[in-house]
Amino acid sequence: MSEGVQHHILSVLVENKFGVLSRVSGLFSRRGYNIFSLAVSPTEDERFSRMTIVVDAESAPLEQVTKQLNKLIPVIKITELGDDAVERELLLVTVKATAELRSQITELASIFEAKILDVGYDALTLLVAGTPDKLDAFTDLLRPYTIVELQRTGRIALPKLARRPAKLRAVKDRGA
Amino acid sequence: MQLTGAQALIKSLEMEGTEVMFGLPGGAILPVYDPLIDSSIRHILVRHEQGAGHMAEGYAQATGRPGVAMVTSGPAATNIVTPLCNAYMDSIPLVVITGQVAYSVIGTDAFQECDTVGITMPVTKHNWLVTDPQDVPRVIREAFHVATTGRPGPVLVDMPKDVSNQMMDWYWPDDVELPGYKPNTKGHPKQIKDAARLMGEAQRPVIYAGGGILKARAAEALRELAELTDAHVVTTLMARGAFPDDHRLALGMPGMHGNYTAVTAMQQSDLLIALGSRFDDRVTGKLDAFAPGAKVIHVDVDPAELGKVRRPDVPIVGDCRLVIEELIKAVKADRAKRDWPDLSAWDRQIEDWQRTYPLHYEQHDDGPLKPQYCIESLRDHTPDDTIVIAGVGQHQMWTSQLWRFNHPYTWINSGGLGTMGYAVPASIGAKVGKPERTVWAVDGDGCFQMTAQELVTASAERIPVKVAILNNAYLGMVRQWQELFYEERYSEVYLSPDLPDYVRWAEAMGCVGFRVDDPSDVVPTIEKANEIDDRPVVVDFRVDYREKVYPMVPAGGSNDDIILDPAHDKPGGR
Question: What is the reported pTM?
């Protein structure tokens, strides 16, 4: 990544209708931004979906993209999540595991609290959930055993919760 | 009441107050053309779908009401993409209905199928694929709402043939429910107060009025604000007419081909009050060098415009008319509290520039006909409220420079997209919307050849527009750039003055055709053209191909390096 470019996590609440993903992603591709990861699913209210978009961009042009996203009719709300957001990602990986190596891999899996989903003649399929960093670390450690296939969901995230009652904060803000 | 989707569509358009629509039928839209026979809506049958879109745009720009166009699927839909993009760039309210192959066969490469919604997504404010006839009234209601509110723009409704044929229970929605669309029209009171305070400190304020003034019907409010504060006003290409050119505070057009005073006043200003303008590159020139000493107040109904190009000191999201009205109140309140600076030194400076660097050309009695002379003659021999429409290129710049626009909605052109061929169809749309007004298109020979066939539409529908072709036998603006920036290497710009024969072409299309070679024939011919009221007129003005548009700021250059007409022997140019 060139200087100034960094990960930004956008949490975008949209109407749960066909074509919305295409409208949203179009605004990024038009400017040549690569969407690093994307996770979409309906929210607790099925009329709406939440997209968690991780995009690599400089902050200033991203502000413009965010404003343009806001102009899309089916987009309800956009929040850029900070570093303190709670984020998780899921990883499925099939790794070569002959009988003699299997125990080494299951040991790694237990350290990372991964689950074994499938066992084959010479391979294992594992599931691990966690922060993107944890998933990266797990992947690195599995690499020497030969990764056959790997799939990540892209991260989902929610904002950090307040540590004090909202009412008190409002009083303080008014004073400031 | 049970209706077909097609009947519901036409009825919904009627409910939205549609008086006229421009279009051309075909396979997938056939069901919708049937109930049109029984409708109160006037339909104007165009000769090419691009014409339908531009006519609807001209209609919208002249009247302020949304323009409506209807075409079929596939090639018709792709032909109307240019008008959609044009309307998107120039914020013109446009509702386009396209036919689509039956919903049941979408995605099978059916005859005349294309992904209209996908293709038009980046050039519409929003678009809809109707999948259920029961949705038709709601979608049309939403379409008009989105097109006409907030920052206006084009929308498209794609109507599959089977949906048009299926039955629905008629209803008309009371309200529009779009949770993600709530345009903010009222400016923030604190920001408005800050703006008034900045205006009260400025020694060299310039109001930078853009097309948003016209969209917001804010010309009156703008005039009141300017007169109250004595701030001079530049009107961008999209805002010509938003402030009267005869006014003592009017500076005319800024930008690449703006006049010296408008460009330089902005450069040296200490406060730019940007009202419904968007810091287009054709206005700012090299951005780093644009108005370096100016603070900026930026008012726009579209939040994405604020800070897009230049970061404002005071951003105000809101409708231009509402914000200006509040700003006037805030200015009055601020003035009651303190004295505002004396602007007379700045006024004198501006007068000095205006005297020293006027627009300049020379028409000799026996010399070649000058395009500027044709435009000035047209200006001086047409009613004051004539609607003038231009295409794109030299003729457009000269018209914008030389015409005296004293009324809003008298100037229509393609600004943002720069669509050659805009003038003929847009003038037809404008005349349909304002039949009582004189409508003159000023066109280039290159532009004219792109959409001239719509004069057949105008003749058939008895829409008596007038077209002045400034025929210099070249793609003139391209030629100008090749002359100035490509060492006079003229690549593919020659068009010939005689091919086509514009007079005979006009006559073949049911118009009256005139040709003018001699300066002395200009005014008599214009007067003859003005008298014709029962059919379109085309005047082929054979003008000097060497004439260039000045002043000029070269693309990417600083506005400080404005090039004046070389014949202008005063210092200050380059």
Answer: 0.94
